Amino acid sequence: GAVVSQHPSWVICKSGTSVKIECRSLDFQATTMFWYRQFPKQSLMLMATSNEGSKATYEQGVEKDKFLINHASLTLSTLTVTSAHPEDSSFYICSARDVPSGRPPYEQYFGPGTRLTVT
Amino acid sequence: QKEVEQDPGPLSVPEGAIVSLNCTYSNSAFQYFMWYRQYSRKGPELLMYTYSSGNKEDGRFTAQVDKSSKYISLFIRDSQPSDSATYLCAMSALDYKLSFGAGTTVTVRA
């Protein structure tokens, strides 16, 4: 159980276009989803936290107008990179929690990641 | 200064050796300490977690936390080639947000 999928696994787009990445919890309801970004040989950096039915909370330094997050249901969150540029090329990973607040943070399940390349 | 410091390695050991990994942190609010394994171009997979100082064992893996020194370690005994991966430490306060180390790339040579 506790499987999280991401789609697509790999995407190449041209500079100036927008790209949507989906994160789905396949066998549980994800009340909270997290979006991370990982550059080569660097750690995962939390970009934003999204709760189903409410606006996402972005970390300091993350442009909310550039990285649009929608958590429309308990099993789906999407990250849209708008007007992508080569510097947005990175590995984007989502994670999901299936428990109400009060449970420990390690009960968080990661997707396989999406590699975005902007040319 | 980063909140979590982890030597990125790389670390190369012969099969059967003990792999020793560690992280230091600066945020006293961290209460939960995790180790993840990540294969190339894949999402992280939880290996161990703990929330108190001391040792925790799970098979060939031992996680160690020293809150007074703000230092955590992961030991892998009898290492196998299949243990070759990047190992990430992660920590969290009560806000459930994870702060990750940079990851240490480990290669176990057959």
Describe this structure in words.
The complex is a heterodimer of chains A (119) and B (110). Chain A is mainly beta. In chain A, 0% of the residues lie in helices and 50% in strands. Chain A is built from no helices and eleven strands. Chain A has strands at 4-7, 10-13, 19-25, 32-38, 44-51, 57-58, 67-73, 76-81, 90-97, 109-110, 114-118. The radius of gyration of chain A is 14 Å and the shape is globular. The model of chain A has no long low-confidence stretch (mean pLDDT 90). Chain B has 110 residues and is an all-beta fold. Chain B has no helices and eleven strands. In chain B, the strands form two sheets. In chain B, strands 2, 4, 5, 9, 10 and 11 form a six-stranded mixed β-sheet that branches. In chain B, strands 1-3-8-7-6 form a five-stranded antiparallel β-sheet, with no helix packed on it. The radius of gyration of chain B is 13 Å and the shape is globular. The model of chain B has no long low-confidence stretch (mean pLDDT 93). The A-B interface holds A 4, 6, 32, 34, 41-46, 49, 91, 93, 95, 97, 101, 104-106, 108, 110-113, 115 and B 4, 6, 8, 32, 34, 36, 41-46, 49, 51, 88, 92, 96-103, 105.
Question: Notable features of this structure?
Answer:
heterodimer, A: 119 residues, mainly beta, 7-stranded mixed beta sheet, 4-stranded antiparallel beta sheet, 11 strands, 0% helix, B: 110 residues, 6-stranded mixed beta sheet, 5-stranded antiparallel beta sheet, globular
Please specify the SSE layout and strand pairing.
The complex is a heterodimer of chains A (119) and B (110).
Chain A: E1 4-7, E2 10-13, E3 19-25, E4 32-38, E5 44-51, E6 57-58, E7 67-73, E8 76-81, E9 90-97, E10 109-110, E11 114-118
Parallel strand pairs in A: 2-11
Antiparallel strand pairs in A: 1-3, 3-8, 4-5, 4-9, 5-6, 7-8, 9-10, 9-11
Chain B: E1 4-6, E2 11-14, E3 19-25, E4 32-38, E5 45-50, E6 54-58, E7 61-66, E8 71-76, E9 85-92, E10 98-100, E11 104-109
Parallel strand pairs in B: 2-11
Antiparallel strand pairs in B: 1-3, 3-8, 4-5, 4-9, 6-7, 7-8, 9-10, 9-11
